């Protein structure tokens, strides 16, 4: 018989684990010396350990192993093996997908394409805006809660039975970098005011604009590019800069009841126009 230390080395299982298997009656020693309390194992226990390790590789809980080992029913073994085959097939599919992703990354690297796509910016340009009636909601909030403010706006639009007539817009008046809070005004074009408060006319005229394609994190750079262009063109800013969300989380819909965050759109495909009235 082998001492527990020798047996541990032979089957490559830690002594501590063998003692634990003894405690839970999963693998009992062949003999325990009454005086020294040393554990000893026969050769046949090596086969038992191999079986335990096999079941462990199949992710069978220790509590179920004893019953499986004692029963050793062919039907039960077939079920276990079939389950493991199914798991391995899924892993195989996942690994195949990961390999394909790595191949695409390799192609990007070889072609000099950035692995992480940056937002893209259009050239700055002019356009003429008509005066537009908007329903607004203005509030100082932590920026992370702007989605809640958007939902509040559309809840009010629905409650007042207002007909939406364009893309959602936003003006950021005062932003505290330290607290990441801002005074935000959300504006949604509507066809009529229904004689309620909270409506105003958004001035028309000549606007300087830039379009930003990509996540909203790219908008600050869009602001800087547009401001620099105003200086270069010797233009005077006659109002606040406005963000117009042409494609993004808020879907195009004239019915406020249908307005839900569109999580199917990849942030890389967001399209936001930043514009400002100028002379």
UniProtKB/TrEMBL annotation:
**Record keywords:** Coiled coil, DNA-binding, Repressor, Transcription, Transcription regulation
Q: Specify the domain of life of the species encoding this protein.
A: Bacteria
List the Gene3D superfamilies. 1.10.1660.10, Regulatory factor, effector binding domain
Q: Which PROSITE patterns has this protein been placed in?
A: HTH_MERR_2
Quote any Pfam family the record assigns: GyrI-like
SUPFAM superfamilies reported for this sequence? Probable bacterial effector-binding domain, Putative DNA-binding domain
Spell out the coiled coil positions from the record. Answer: 78-108
Q: Name one GO molecular function term.
A: DNA binding
HTH merR-type domain residues are: 1-71
InterPro entries, from UniProt?
DNA-bd_dom_put_sf, GyrI-like, MerR-type_HTH_dom, MerR_fam, Reg_factor_effector_dom_sf
PANTHER family named in the record: MERR-FAMILY TRANSCRIPTIONAL REGULATOR (PTHR30204:SF69), REDOX-CYCLING DRUG-SENSING TRANSCRIPTIONAL ACTIVATOR SOXR (PTHR30204)
Stated name of the protein = Transcriptional regulator, MerR family
User: What is the originating organism of this protein?
Assistant: Alkalicoccus daliensis
């Amino acid at each position: 018989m082998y001492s527990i230390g020798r047996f541990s080395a032979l089957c490559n299982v830690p002594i501590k684990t063998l003692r634990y298997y003894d405690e839970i009656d999963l693998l009992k020693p062949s003999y325990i010396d009454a005086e020294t309390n040393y554990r000893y194992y026969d050769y046949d226990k090596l086969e038992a350990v191999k079986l335990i390790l096999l079941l462990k590789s199949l992710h069978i809980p220790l509590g179920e192993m004893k019953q499986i080992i004692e029963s050793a029913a062919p039907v039960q073994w077939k079920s276990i093996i079939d389950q493991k085959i199914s798991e391995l097939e899924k892993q195989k599919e996942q690994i195949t997908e990961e390999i394909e992703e790595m191949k695409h990354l390799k192609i990007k690297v070889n072609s000099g394409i950035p692995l992480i796509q940056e937002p893209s910016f259009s050239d700055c340009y002019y356009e003429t805006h008509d005066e537009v009636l908007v329903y607004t909601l203005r509030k100082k909030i932590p920026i992370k809660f702007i989605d809640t403010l958007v939902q509040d706006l559309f809840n009010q639009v629905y409650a007042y039975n207002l007909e939406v007539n364009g893309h959602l817009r936003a003006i950021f008046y005062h932003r505290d970098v330290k607290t990441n809070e801002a005074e935000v005004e959300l504006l949604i074009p509507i066809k009529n005011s229904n004689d309620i408060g909270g409506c105003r006319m958004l001035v028309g005229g000549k606007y300087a604009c830039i379009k930003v394609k990509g996540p909203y994190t790219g908008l600050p750079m869009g602001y800087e590019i547009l401001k620099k262009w105003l200086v270069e063109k010797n233009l005077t800013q006659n109002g606040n800069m406005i963000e117009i969300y042409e494609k993004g989380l808020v879907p195009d819909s004239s019915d406020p009841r249908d307005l839900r965050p569109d999580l199917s759109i990849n942030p890389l495909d967001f399209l936001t126009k930043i514009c400002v009235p100028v002379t």
